[in-house]
Amino acid sequence: MGGSRGSYYLALKQINKLANSAFGLRKICNSIAKSAAKTVAANGCRILLLDTQKEYLITVGAHGLSDLYLRKGPLDGRKSLPDILEGRVVFIADATKDERVQHPEVAQAQGISSILGVPILNKGEAKGEIRIYTREPCQFSDADKSFLLSVADICAVLLERAELYQLVEKDYKVSKKRIKSAQASQLPTASLRPTSFAHPSEEEFAKWLDFYRMEWLYEPRSFPLQWKGDEVAEMFTPDFYLPELDLYVELTTLKQNLITEKNRKMRQLKELYPEINIRLLNKGDYLQLLAKYGYGPLGEAKVKGVDQVLYSHTQIQRRVRALARRISHDYAGQQLVLVGILKGVVCFMADLMQHLSLPVTLDFMAISYYSGDGQAVKITRDLDSSITGQHVLMVEDIVDTGMTLNYVLRHLSSHNPASLRVCTLLDKRARRLVNIPLDYIGFEIPDEFIVGYGLDYKGEYRNLPFIGILHPELIREGGL
Ligand code: IMP
Ligand code: MG
């Protein structure tokens, strides 16, 4: 790929000029992204800035990428190609298959093949990244890489200057309350855990989000709404940003005059920033919102007896997709029989199989646990079809002592399958009695009693869309 020496020079000249122009940061970064992408003959580019907590990467400029791709939310800097923030240049040949990519399914849907990422370093410290995207799989030359590192150097100076500029913006004619957030204008100086909230309802909302393991940022960004000449005369700072949903949330009190004012600001915001997803919520609304995304029964403060959500719906889905990718890769070109034990595995099995890109068949067994006649487990429902000579993947919801799995595996191997492996969503390793090698593990969990996503306590809780820890006292008391 890439350009000639002349084209690198011309591009750098243009980018330098842009960086020194009077345009706003976003416009400058969009233009730099365009110029960089064109120069290395790529289809897209974006410039990402690390927030002050050094956790999230937020897009400050982009070119050639669809709204959908940009809207998948800030990237988690620790999960998405973390080597770049370590100061390294990272090349991904196939973004749809690489474990280092945080949203490979989005990359696939967007037709993105290769990604090249370079760090934006300021005094040796990573401030952000430039990423280059191509639709066709490709390689980049050393000249391309060194060109992009030069662009990154320009961005480092640009971003530092913008940051200084934000501090000067204190003089902006914004209301006193907003001065603090005015510093955050355009630049995400987000704090994940503020020491204080402006209003108790915000704190309550944050606790709610924590309970459901939904990531959030508090007042991460201010949006200028009105200008007097070059100066920002009015800004709007939404209370929360939920990266998983790519959604800004503004909470409202019930005072009607405030709601009217907020509605006006919301309308202006939507006009000026149509790409932004924002919702104005009162308490009833946010309970509904969480319910819509599958978080907990509506109307009850929390799920009865569940103290803590261990894995949210989104976290489970992400993990299940990653497992399915590995399994599809390992069994490529083969036919697979998935065997599950009823009933706990239903949610996991249903989600897992939908993401397998293999021909699969399904079979189920049911067992009953009883004691008294010397046997621990009894098969009450056996397989429908023969597994002799077949590749079998035993799918389990949870492996605890390992007794069940041990018994079932012995039964399955007696039918001489071609291969027999185990995939479990949860591994409660601390309580293991029988050591069975587990080939695919979703999450290793602590020694707690878990419910939800198929798992029950006395037949209940299976329908929760998340995995939660049941209050230990409930189990000791033997009921609710
Ligand atoms: P094991 O035989 O001890 O490995 O566990 C077998 C079965 O016990 C699992 O398939 C589950 O049905 C059930 N089980 C174990 N731990 C839990 C839990 O924390 N919550 C719900 N069911 C569990
Ligand atoms: Mg089970």
Overview of the molecule:
Helices cover 34% and strands 25% of the residues. The chain contains 14 helices and 21 strands. The protein is of the alpha+beta class and 480 residues long. The relative contact order is 0.07. The termini are far apart. The protein folds into three domains: 5-167, Beta-Lactamase; 196-299, Endonuclease, Chain A, CATH 3.40.960; 311-477, 3-Layer(aba) Sandwich (Rossmann fold). Strand 17, helix 13 (403-413) and strand 18 form a beta-alpha-beta unit. The strands form five sheets. The protein has a six-stranded antiparallel β-sheet. It has a six-stranded mixed β-sheet with strand order 16-15-14-17-18-19, sandwiched between helices. It binds inosinic acid and magnesium ion. Residues 344, 397-405, 428, 449-451, 455 line the site of inosinic acid.
Strands, helices and their partners?
Layout: H1 5-19, H2 25-39, E1 44-50, E2 56-63, H3 67-70, E3 75-76, H4 82-85, E4 90-92, H5 104-109, E5 114-122, E6 125-134, H6 142-168, H7 176-182, H8 200-211, E7 217-218, E8 223-228, E9 231-236, E10 240-242, E11 247-251, H9 256-272, E12 278-281, H10 283-292, E13 306-311, H11 313-330, E14 336-341, H12 346-354, E15 360-369, E16 377-381, E17 391-399, H13 403-413, E18 419-427, E19 440-444, E20 450-451, E21 467-470, H14 472-477
Parallel strand pairs: 11-12, 14-15, 14-17, 17-18, 18-19
Antiparallel strand pairs: 1-2, 1-6, 2-3, 4-5, 5-6, 7-10, 8-9, 10-11, 13-21, 15-16, 20-21
Bound molecules: inosinic acid and magnesium ion.
